[in-house]
Design goal:
Methylamine Dehydrogenase, Chain H, 4-stranded antiparallel sheet, single chain, mainly beta
Length: 424
């Protein structure tokens, strides 16, 4: 009886220890995939449902049944959104609160030639994923190889593709951006800053106030560069330039409903390294605020998204640029935090990149675990940051485990000690 009671007390003590040690600011949710070994999450709506893409089951030859399909990551079970008819590949890139997603899908086109042989070509289409049905956006003359990058809660879609500006000249099609209004079944073009049939424009995000975010070719003092912009879908002829610093090329990536914009600017004299920034476009005369890096020696960071609370997510180097290892970050309250340090220490995950964040603070992205690239979701818990140190040198006694529990945990290989309150 005494032994049984001792075991019971020990079990309760260990249960309490484990319960405490698993607490962290974020709960890490493995979103899985489509029974393959690869998945990426690209966006998350306010219901916490994510969209992205994944490969299919691995067959006997070690290959995948399909390279990648758009997938709806749902706690009730992931949904393979499929591809267009005669298509083999699709990607989900954006999802609104009505569960309508957009992205791309290819189409395999076979044409019999005069000599009897068959010519196979691939055409890429912007697509809508709705009620588990995938459908192409209506065709637009002279526009091909299209991708839909975003959809807002007003059913307005942004897309970019190869557009033949003047079919009568010898110029090759160039990348141009368009806005598609589902309610009116209409397209509107986004002209670049620079004139010319070879100049490019690109759209990457849209908010619920119908402001679009993108970048385009431009010239500064006779030199070619890239400028980012925002514009209202009611007046796409008026591109409002996102201010640059020292004529550095910049790529905007995300916009919230307050017209706060995030992205990254090129760092001069580097191998295409960048620094993440945020700028309040509603302020009128605001300049970019740089978000910094995890470590000044590892000078590359890139912001992907911002929610209406001003929380920013992205990726930043965790080692030298030549090695190129990245870690997912959240920037809040003026500080860039490595998300790998905000989840439980008992995980084998390496969170590589955070791609989107909703207004509830849920974050999606991708990382590596068990040798695979896999999609994740982070759910905020409100818990303090855990202390991942072993505590072997702690002889103060204050707040420490009883010695017997320390010994037991050491035998079991537990890596965590008691969580400590965040001082950030």
């Amino acid at each position: 009886m005494k032994l049984t009671m001792t075991k019971t007390l020990l079990a309760l003590s260990l249960s309490a220890v484990f319960s405490t040690s698993l607490a962290a600011p974020y709960e890490l949710v493995d979103l899985g995939g489509l029974d393959g070994n690869f998945s990426i999450a690209r966006d998350i709506n306010e219901a916490g449902i994510a969209i992205g893409y994944a490969n299919g089951p691995i067959n006997e030859d070690g290959g995948s049944d399909f390279v990648r399909h758009a997938v709806l990551f749902d706690d009730a079970g992931n949904i393979d959104l499929g591809a267009v008819e005669a298509g083999t590949i699709s990607e989900g890139l954006s999802l609104n609160d009505a569960m309508v997603g957009v992205g791309l899908s290819n189409e395999v086109i076979e044409k019999e030639l005069d000599d009897g042989s068959t010519e196979v070509t691939l055409q890429q289409h912007a697509v809508i994923f709705e009620s588990e049905v995938v459908s192409q956006l209506p065709d637009l003359e002279n526009l091909s190889n299209v991708t839909a990058f975003g959809i807002n809660n007003n059913d307005i879609i942004i897309l970019s593709g190869k557009f033949d500006v003047n079919p009568d000249d010898d110029e090759n099609p160039t990348t141009r951006a368009f806005v598609y209004d589902r309610q009116n079944n209409s397209y509107s073009a986004v002209e670049p800053f620079s004139e010319g049939a070879d100049k490019q424009s690109f759209l990457i995000d849209i908010n619920d106030n119908n402001y679009v975010l993108g970048f385009s070719d431009a010239e500064v003092n006779g030199e070619a560069t890239i400028k980012s912009f925002i514009a209202s879908t009611n007046d796409l002829g008026q591109l409002v330039e996102v201010p640059q610093l020292n004529e550095r090329a910049m790529l905007a990536q995300g916009i919230n409903d307050l017209n706060q914009v995030v992205g990254s600017m090129q760092i001069p004299d580097t191998r295409n390294q960048r620094e993440a920034f945020v700028i309040d476009m509603a302020a009128g005369d605001s300049e970019p605020t740089f978000l910094g890096f995890f470590d000044s020696r590892f000078n590359d960071s890139r912001a992907n998204d911002i929610n209406n609370s001003g929380q920013i997510v992205g990726r930043a180097l965790i080692s030298s640029p030549t090695i190129g290892e990245y870690g997912a970050f959240i920037h809040e309250n003026g500080e860039m935090k490595n998300l790998n340090e905000l989840v439980s220490c008992n995980t084998d995950w390496k969170l590589t990149e955070a791609t989107a964040i909703n207004d509830s603070g849920q974050i999606v992205g991708f990382g590596t675990v068990d040798g695979e690239v896999r999609a994740f979701r982070l759910d905020p818990t409100g818990e303090p940051i855990e202390d991942c140190s072993t505590g072997e040198d702690d002889s103060s006694g204050g707040g420490s485990f009883p010695a017997v529990l320390v010994a037991i945990l050491a035998v079991l290989g537990i890596r965590r000690s008691i969580p400590v309150t965040s001082i950030s």
